[in-house]
Design a protein that fits this description.
CATH class: Mainly Alpha
Oligomer: single chain
Number of helices: 4
Strand content: 5-15%
Radius of gyration: 14 Å
Shape: globular
CATH architecture: Orthogonal Bundle
Number of domains: 1
Strand order of the largest sheet: 1-2
Length: 81
Protein backbone atom coordinates (compact mmCIF):
# COMPACT_ATOMS: atom_id res chain seq x y z
CA UNK A 1 0.00 0.00 0.00
CA UNK A 2 1.38 3.42 -0.96
CA UNK A 3 2.04 5.88 1.84
CA UNK A 4 -0.62 8.22 0.41
CA UNK A 5 -3.20 5.42 0.60
CA UNK A 6 -2.27 4.71 4.21
CA UNK A 7 -2.74 8.40 5.05
CA UNK A 8 -6.15 8.48 3.34
CA UNK A 9 -7.27 5.28 5.08
CA UNK A 10 -6.10 6.60 8.47
CA UNK A 11 -7.91 9.91 7.89
CA UNK A 12 -11.15 8.04 7.14
CA UNK A 13 -10.74 5.71 10.11
CA UNK A 14 -9.91 8.57 12.49
CA UNK A 15 -12.66 10.76 10.98
CA UNK A 16 -10.20 13.57 10.24
CA UNK A 17 -10.94 15.70 7.19
CA UNK A 18 -8.24 16.94 4.86
CA UNK A 19 -9.21 20.47 5.95
CA UNK A 20 -8.67 19.59 9.62
CA UNK A 21 -5.34 17.94 8.82
CA UNK A 22 -4.30 21.03 6.87
CA UNK A 23 -5.07 23.17 9.94
CA UNK A 24 -3.01 20.88 12.17
CA UNK A 25 -0.10 21.06 9.72
CA UNK A 26 -0.31 24.85 9.58
CA UNK A 27 -1.27 24.89 5.89
CA UNK A 28 -3.32 27.78 4.51
CA UNK A 29 -5.82 25.42 2.88
CA UNK A 30 -6.79 21.80 2.26
CA UNK A 31 -5.05 21.96 -1.14
CA UNK A 32 -1.69 21.22 0.49
CA UNK A 33 -3.01 17.96 1.93
CA UNK A 34 -4.65 17.09 -1.38
CA UNK A 35 -1.23 17.41 -3.03
CA UNK A 36 0.31 15.06 -0.46
CA UNK A 37 -2.28 12.32 -0.93
CA UNK A 38 -2.93 12.89 -4.63
CA UNK A 39 -2.60 10.17 -7.25
CA UNK A 40 -0.09 12.23 -9.26
CA UNK A 41 2.45 12.17 -6.45
CA UNK A 42 4.82 9.22 -6.75
CA UNK A 43 6.07 9.24 -3.17
CA UNK A 44 6.66 11.43 -0.14
CA UNK A 45 9.70 11.81 2.08
CA UNK A 46 9.91 10.04 5.41
CA UNK A 47 10.20 13.47 7.05
CA UNK A 48 6.90 14.63 5.51
CA UNK A 49 5.23 11.30 6.28
CA UNK A 50 6.31 11.58 9.93
CA UNK A 51 4.97 15.16 10.09
CA UNK A 52 1.59 14.15 8.62
CA UNK A 53 1.30 11.05 10.82
CA UNK A 54 2.10 13.15 13.91
CA UNK A 55 -0.55 15.72 12.93
CA UNK A 56 -3.07 12.86 12.75
CA UNK A 57 -2.18 11.89 16.32
CA UNK A 58 -0.40 8.70 15.24
CA UNK A 59 3.12 7.27 15.22
CA UNK A 60 5.31 6.05 12.40
CA UNK A 61 6.88 2.79 13.57
CA UNK A 62 9.59 0.55 12.14
CA UNK A 63 9.23 -3.00 13.46
CA UNK A 64 11.55 -5.94 12.96
CA UNK A 65 10.02 -8.83 11.02
CA UNK A 66 12.34 -11.28 12.77
CA UNK A 67 11.65 -9.99 16.26
CA UNK A 68 8.41 -7.97 16.47
CA UNK A 69 9.35 -6.83 19.97
CA UNK A 70 12.03 -4.64 18.36
CA UNK A 71 10.57 -1.39 17.11
CA UNK A 72 11.56 2.22 16.60
CA UNK A 73 9.37 5.30 16.33
CA UNK A 74 10.15 7.96 13.74
CA UNK A 75 9.20 11.39 15.02
CA UNK A 76 8.44 14.60 13.19
CA UNK A 77 10.62 16.57 15.60
CA UNK A 78 14.07 17.49 14.46
CA UNK A 79 16.92 16.13 16.51
CA UNK A 80 19.09 18.69 18.28
CA UNK A 81 22.67 18.66 17.06
Amino acid sequence: MREQDVIKKALRTLKITQTKLAERLGYASQAGVAQIVGRDRKSITVQLLAKVVDAMGCELVIRSKEDPSLEWIITAEEESK
